[in-house]
Write a structure and sequence with these properties.
Shape: globular
Strand order of the largest sheet: 3-2-1-4-5-7-6-8
Strand content: 15-25%
CATH superfamily: Vaccinia Virus protein VP39
Bound molecules: S-adenosylmethionine
GO biological process, one term: methylation
InterPro entries: C5-MTase, C5_MeTfrase, SAM-dependent_MTases_sf
Number of domains: 1
Largest sheet: 8 strands, mixed
Order of helices and strands: EHEHEHEHEHEEEEEEHHH
CATH topology: Rossmann fold
Distance between the termini: 51 Å
Oligomer: single chain
GO molecular function: methyltransferase activity
CATH architecture: 3-Layer(aba) Sandwich
Pfam family, one: DNA_methylase
Keywords: Methyltransferase, S-adenosyl-L-methionine, Transferase
Radius of gyration: 21 Å
Length: 285
Protein backbone atom coordinates (compact mmCIF):
# COMPACT_ATOMS: atom_id res chain seq x y z
CA UNK A 1 0.00 0.00 0.00
CA UNK A 2 1.25 3.48 -0.88
CA UNK A 3 2.59 5.48 2.06
CA UNK A 4 1.02 8.90 2.48
CA UNK A 5 3.68 11.38 3.51
CA UNK A 6 2.05 14.50 4.85
CA UNK A 7 3.16 18.12 4.86
CA UNK A 8 1.00 19.85 7.51
CA UNK A 9 0.58 23.55 6.72
CA UNK A 10 -0.92 26.20 9.05
CA UNK A 11 -0.21 23.49 11.61
CA UNK A 12 -1.38 25.31 14.77
CA UNK A 13 -1.24 22.86 17.66
CA UNK A 14 -1.24 19.87 15.31
CA UNK A 15 -4.86 18.73 15.03
CA UNK A 16 -4.11 16.93 11.78
CA UNK A 17 -1.00 15.38 13.29
CA UNK A 18 -3.08 13.79 16.06
CA UNK A 19 -5.54 12.47 13.48
CA UNK A 20 -2.69 10.95 11.46
CA UNK A 21 -1.16 9.35 14.56
CA UNK A 22 -4.56 7.86 15.43
CA UNK A 23 -4.67 5.89 12.20
CA UNK A 24 -4.60 2.19 12.79
CA UNK A 25 -2.58 1.49 9.65
CA UNK A 26 0.94 2.87 9.68
CA UNK A 27 0.91 3.91 6.03
CA UNK A 28 0.47 7.61 6.80
CA UNK A 29 2.92 9.91 8.51
CA UNK A 30 3.44 13.64 9.06
CA UNK A 31 6.89 14.37 7.63
CA UNK A 32 7.06 18.14 8.06
CA UNK A 33 4.90 21.01 9.27
CA UNK A 34 4.94 24.80 9.10
CA UNK A 35 3.41 27.33 11.47
CA UNK A 36 4.07 31.06 11.96
CA UNK A 37 2.91 31.51 15.55
CA UNK A 38 5.72 30.96 18.07
CA UNK A 39 3.46 29.82 20.90
CA UNK A 40 1.62 27.35 18.68
CA UNK A 41 5.01 25.99 17.57
CA UNK A 42 6.12 25.51 21.20
CA UNK A 43 2.91 23.61 21.98
CA UNK A 44 3.29 21.51 18.83
CA UNK A 45 6.86 20.67 19.88
CA UNK A 46 5.66 19.57 23.33
CA UNK A 47 3.15 17.26 21.65
CA UNK A 48 5.15 15.88 18.72
CA UNK A 49 8.84 16.62 19.32
CA UNK A 50 11.20 19.21 17.90
CA UNK A 51 12.09 17.78 14.50
CA UNK A 52 8.85 17.98 12.55
CA UNK A 53 7.70 21.58 12.88
CA UNK A 54 9.34 24.72 11.51
CA UNK A 55 8.45 28.21 12.64
CA UNK A 56 8.00 29.55 9.13
CA UNK A 57 5.85 31.87 7.09
CA UNK A 58 4.27 29.69 4.42
CA UNK A 59 4.61 32.57 1.96
CA UNK A 60 8.33 31.74 1.86
CA UNK A 61 7.74 28.18 0.64
CA UNK A 62 9.02 27.67 -2.93
CA UNK A 63 8.17 25.09 -5.59
CA UNK A 64 11.67 23.60 -5.32
CA UNK A 65 11.42 23.27 -1.55
CA UNK A 66 8.00 21.66 -1.77
CA UNK A 67 9.39 19.09 -4.19
CA UNK A 68 12.45 18.51 -1.97
CA UNK A 69 10.28 17.81 1.13
CA UNK A 70 9.68 14.26 -0.12
CA UNK A 71 5.95 14.41 0.65
CA UNK A 72 2.96 13.41 -1.47
CA UNK A 73 0.15 15.00 0.56
CA UNK A 74 -0.68 18.40 2.01
CA UNK A 75 -3.08 18.70 4.96
CA UNK A 76 -3.97 22.28 5.86
CA UNK A 77 -6.33 24.53 7.84
CA UNK A 78 -5.71 27.99 6.39
CA UNK A 79 -6.81 31.02 8.46
CA UNK A 80 -10.61 31.16 8.68
CA UNK A 81 -11.13 34.82 9.68
CA UNK A 82 -11.79 35.93 6.04
CA UNK A 83 -14.84 33.64 5.92
CA UNK A 84 -16.38 33.54 9.40
CA UNK A 85 -20.02 34.48 9.58
CA UNK A 86 -19.41 36.92 12.44
CA UNK A 87 -16.39 38.56 10.78
CA UNK A 88 -16.11 41.15 7.99
CA UNK A 89 -16.13 38.39 5.34
CA UNK A 90 -13.50 40.10 3.21
CA UNK A 91 -12.89 36.74 1.56
CA UNK A 92 -10.14 36.92 -1.14
CA UNK A 93 -9.57 40.60 -0.30
CA UNK A 94 -8.36 39.70 3.19
CA UNK A 95 -4.54 39.51 3.38
CA UNK A 96 -4.89 36.42 5.56
CA UNK A 97 -5.80 34.52 2.36
CA UNK A 98 -2.41 35.26 0.80
CA UNK A 99 -0.55 32.23 2.14
CA UNK A 100 -3.43 29.91 1.16
CA UNK A 101 -3.37 31.35 -2.38
CA UNK A 102 0.40 30.94 -2.44
CA UNK A 103 0.19 27.20 -1.66
CA UNK A 104 -2.51 26.65 -4.30
CA UNK A 105 -0.38 28.42 -6.90
CA UNK A 106 2.53 26.06 -6.21
CA UNK A 107 0.43 22.96 -6.97
CA UNK A 108 0.55 22.98 -10.80
CA UNK A 109 4.37 22.83 -10.55
CA UNK A 110 4.70 20.22 -7.79
CA UNK A 111 3.85 16.82 -9.32
CA UNK A 112 4.80 15.02 -6.11
CA UNK A 113 1.66 16.35 -4.37
CA UNK A 114 -1.02 13.73 -5.06
CA UNK A 115 -3.42 14.25 -2.12
CA UNK A 116 -4.92 17.23 -0.31
CA UNK A 117 -7.02 17.62 2.81
CA UNK A 118 -8.26 21.14 3.50
CA UNK A 119 -10.36 22.29 6.46
CA UNK A 120 -12.09 25.60 7.03
CA UNK A 121 -15.06 27.20 8.76
CA UNK A 122 -18.72 26.95 7.86
CA UNK A 123 -19.05 29.93 5.50
CA UNK A 124 -16.03 28.99 3.37
CA UNK A 125 -18.30 26.89 1.14
CA UNK A 126 -19.92 30.07 -0.23
CA UNK A 127 -16.70 32.07 -0.66
CA UNK A 128 -14.90 33.34 -3.75
CA UNK A 129 -11.76 31.75 -2.30
CA UNK A 130 -13.40 28.32 -2.60
CA UNK A 131 -14.27 29.04 -6.25
CA UNK A 132 -10.65 30.05 -6.94
CA UNK A 133 -9.36 26.99 -5.10
CA UNK A 134 -11.57 24.57 -7.08
CA UNK A 135 -10.52 26.20 -10.35
CA UNK A 136 -6.83 25.78 -9.54
CA UNK A 137 -7.30 22.20 -8.32
CA UNK A 138 -9.29 21.14 -11.35
CA UNK A 139 -6.83 22.69 -13.79
CA UNK A 140 -3.98 20.94 -11.93
CA UNK A 141 -5.61 17.52 -12.43
CA UNK A 142 -7.19 17.02 -8.98
CA UNK A 143 -10.56 15.35 -8.39
CA UNK A 144 -12.32 16.75 -5.35
CA UNK A 145 -15.02 15.92 -2.85
CA UNK A 146 -16.33 18.35 -0.24
CA UNK A 147 -18.13 17.92 3.08
CA UNK A 148 -19.81 19.94 5.80
CA UNK A 149 -19.45 17.86 8.94
CA UNK A 150 -19.48 18.28 12.69
CA UNK A 151 -17.91 16.17 15.48
CA UNK A 152 -21.51 15.43 16.51
CA UNK A 153 -21.82 13.38 13.28
CA UNK A 154 -19.25 11.06 14.85
CA UNK A 155 -20.78 10.90 18.33
CA UNK A 156 -18.35 13.44 19.78
CA UNK A 157 -20.24 15.86 22.06
CA UNK A 158 -19.19 19.12 20.38
CA UNK A 159 -20.99 21.13 17.72
CA UNK A 160 -18.42 22.47 15.30
CA UNK A 161 -19.68 22.42 11.74
CA UNK A 162 -16.70 22.63 9.40
CA UNK A 163 -15.92 22.50 5.69
CA UNK A 164 -13.59 19.71 4.49
CA UNK A 165 -12.17 19.08 1.05
CA UNK A 166 -10.43 15.92 -0.11
CA UNK A 167 -8.56 16.02 -3.41
CA UNK A 168 -6.75 13.32 -5.31
CA UNK A 169 -4.66 13.80 -8.42
CA UNK A 170 -5.64 12.07 -11.67
CA UNK A 171 -7.85 9.54 -9.90
CA UNK A 172 -11.57 9.92 -9.45
CA UNK A 173 -13.19 9.06 -6.15
CA UNK A 174 -15.34 5.93 -6.53
CA UNK A 175 -18.98 6.87 -6.45
CA UNK A 176 -22.06 4.83 -7.00
CA UNK A 177 -24.15 5.79 -9.97
CA UNK A 178 -24.10 9.54 -9.71
CA UNK A 179 -21.61 12.33 -9.64
CA UNK A 180 -21.54 13.83 -6.17
CA UNK A 181 -23.67 16.83 -5.26
CA UNK A 182 -21.45 19.80 -4.60
CA UNK A 183 -21.08 19.50 -0.83
CA UNK A 184 -21.96 16.40 1.16
CA UNK A 185 -23.51 16.50 4.59
CA UNK A 186 -23.93 12.76 4.98
CA UNK A 187 -23.16 9.76 2.88
CA UNK A 188 -23.15 6.03 3.11
CA UNK A 189 -20.28 3.94 1.93
CA UNK A 190 -19.66 0.37 0.96
CA UNK A 191 -16.79 -1.70 2.31
CA UNK A 192 -15.74 -2.45 -1.29
CA UNK A 193 -14.73 1.22 -1.58
CA UNK A 194 -17.85 2.45 -3.35
CA UNK A 195 -19.83 5.31 -1.89
CA UNK A 196 -23.54 5.84 -2.13
CA UNK A 197 -24.41 9.49 -2.04
CA UNK A 198 -28.12 9.11 -1.63
CA UNK A 199 -29.70 7.93 1.56
CA UNK A 200 -32.37 6.04 -0.35
CA UNK A 201 -30.27 4.47 -3.13
CA UNK A 202 -28.52 1.90 -1.03
CA UNK A 203 -27.21 -0.49 -3.67
CA UNK A 204 -23.52 -0.13 -4.44
CA UNK A 205 -22.90 0.00 -8.18
CA UNK A 206 -19.45 -1.46 -7.59
CA UNK A 207 -20.42 -4.72 -5.90
CA UNK A 208 -24.26 -4.61 -6.01
CA UNK A 209 -24.52 -5.16 -2.26
CA UNK A 210 -26.69 -3.11 0.04
CA UNK A 211 -24.86 -0.27 1.73
CA UNK A 212 -26.15 1.49 4.81
CA UNK A 213 -23.03 2.35 6.70
CA UNK A 214 -22.68 5.85 8.05
CA UNK A 215 -19.55 7.97 7.93
CA UNK A 216 -18.92 7.35 11.64
CA UNK A 217 -18.25 3.68 10.99
CA UNK A 218 -15.77 4.56 8.28
CA UNK A 219 -13.84 6.42 10.95
CA UNK A 220 -14.23 3.54 13.39
CA UNK A 221 -12.84 1.14 10.82
CA UNK A 222 -9.77 3.25 10.15
CA UNK A 223 -8.82 4.48 13.58
CA UNK A 224 -7.93 2.51 16.62
CA UNK A 225 -9.35 4.73 19.31
CA UNK A 226 -12.97 5.50 18.63
CA UNK A 227 -15.16 3.84 21.19
CA UNK A 228 -18.01 1.71 19.90
CA UNK A 229 -20.47 3.65 22.07
CA UNK A 230 -19.65 6.81 20.08
CA UNK A 231 -21.17 5.25 17.03
CA UNK A 232 -24.52 4.67 18.61
CA UNK A 233 -24.90 7.39 21.21
CA UNK A 234 -23.14 10.64 21.60
CA UNK A 235 -20.67 10.28 24.47
CA UNK A 236 -20.75 12.41 27.61
CA UNK A 237 -18.49 15.38 28.25
CA UNK A 238 -16.84 13.66 31.23
CA UNK A 239 -15.07 11.25 28.84
CA UNK A 240 -13.04 14.24 27.64
CA UNK A 241 -12.24 15.89 30.98
CA UNK A 242 -9.06 15.38 32.90
CA UNK A 243 -10.06 14.00 36.29
CA UNK A 244 -6.92 15.25 38.00
CA UNK A 245 -7.47 18.91 37.08
CA UNK A 246 -8.44 21.31 39.86
CA UNK A 247 -11.57 22.74 38.24
CA UNK A 248 -12.03 25.37 40.95
CA UNK A 249 -9.47 27.56 39.19
CA UNK A 250 -11.78 27.79 36.16
CA UNK A 251 -14.95 28.53 38.15
CA UNK A 252 -17.08 31.37 36.77
CA UNK A 253 -17.14 34.15 39.42
CA UNK A 254 -20.39 34.56 41.38
CA UNK A 255 -20.68 38.14 40.12
CA UNK A 256 -20.93 36.93 36.50
CA UNK A 257 -23.27 34.07 37.40
CA UNK A 258 -25.64 36.40 39.23
CA UNK A 259 -25.69 38.84 36.34
CA UNK A 260 -25.75 36.52 33.34
CA UNK A 261 -26.69 33.13 34.82
CA UNK A 262 -29.99 32.93 33.00
CA UNK A 263 -28.46 33.49 29.56
CA UNK A 264 -25.26 31.43 29.99
CA UNK A 265 -25.10 28.17 28.09
CA UNK A 266 -24.20 25.97 31.08
CA UNK A 267 -23.09 22.33 30.63
CA UNK A 268 -22.31 19.63 33.16
CA UNK A 269 -20.16 16.47 33.15
CA UNK A 270 -23.22 14.46 32.19
CA UNK A 271 -24.14 16.54 29.13
CA UNK A 272 -23.75 15.12 25.65
CA UNK A 273 -23.25 18.41 23.86
CA UNK A 274 -21.08 21.50 23.87
CA UNK A 275 -20.27 24.26 21.44
CA UNK A 276 -17.31 26.40 20.42
CA UNK A 277 -16.83 30.10 20.71
CA UNK A 278 -14.02 32.48 19.87
CA UNK A 279 -12.95 35.69 21.52
CA UNK A 280 -15.84 37.79 20.18
CA UNK A 281 -16.29 40.31 22.99
CA UNK A 282 -19.98 39.58 23.43
CA UNK A 283 -19.35 35.93 24.15
CA UNK A 284 -16.47 35.80 26.58
CA UNK A 285 -16.37 37.50 29.92
C1 LIG B 1 -7.09 27.65 11.68
S1 LIG B 1 -5.54 27.68 12.47
C2 LIG B 1 -4.97 26.04 12.28
C3 LIG B 1 -5.40 25.11 13.35
C4 LIG B 1 -4.71 23.77 13.30
N1 LIG B 1 -5.33 22.88 12.34
C5 LIG B 1 -4.67 23.12 14.68
O1 LIG B 1 -4.97 21.91 14.79
O2 LIG B 1 -4.34 23.80 15.65
C6 LIG B 1 -4.53 28.55 11.29
C7 LIG B 1 -3.07 28.62 11.68
O3 LIG B 1 -2.35 29.17 10.59
C8 LIG B 1 -1.26 29.93 11.11
N2 LIG B 1 -0.82 30.83 10.03
C9 LIG B 1 -1.51 31.89 9.54
N3 LIG B 1 -0.81 32.47 8.52
C10 LIG B 1 0.33 31.75 8.38
C11 LIG B 1 1.46 31.85 7.49
N4 LIG B 1 1.53 32.81 6.58
N5 LIG B 1 2.45 30.94 7.62
C12 LIG B 1 2.38 29.95 8.57
N6 LIG B 1 1.34 29.81 9.43
C13 LIG B 1 0.33 30.68 9.33
C14 LIG B 1 -1.88 30.61 12.33
O4 LIG B 1 -0.89 31.03 13.25
C15 LIG B 1 -2.79 29.52 12.89
O5 LIG B 1 -2.13 28.76 13.87
Amino acid sequence: METIKVLELFAGLGGFHIAVNNQRDANIQVIKSFEINVNAVKTYQENFGYDVISNRNILSLSTEELIRQNVNAIFMSPPCQPFTRLGKKLDVNDDRCNAFHHVLKLLPRTPNIQYLLIENVYGFESSKMRENMLEILQSSGFYTIEFLLSPTDFGVPNSRLRYYLLARKNKKFTFCKHDPPSILKEFTYCTCGGISLHDQSSICSNCQREVNTKISSLVQQNTGNMKQSFLVNTSKLHSYLDEKTDIEQYAVPDKILLRYGNILDLRTFQDSSSCCFTKGKHFVN
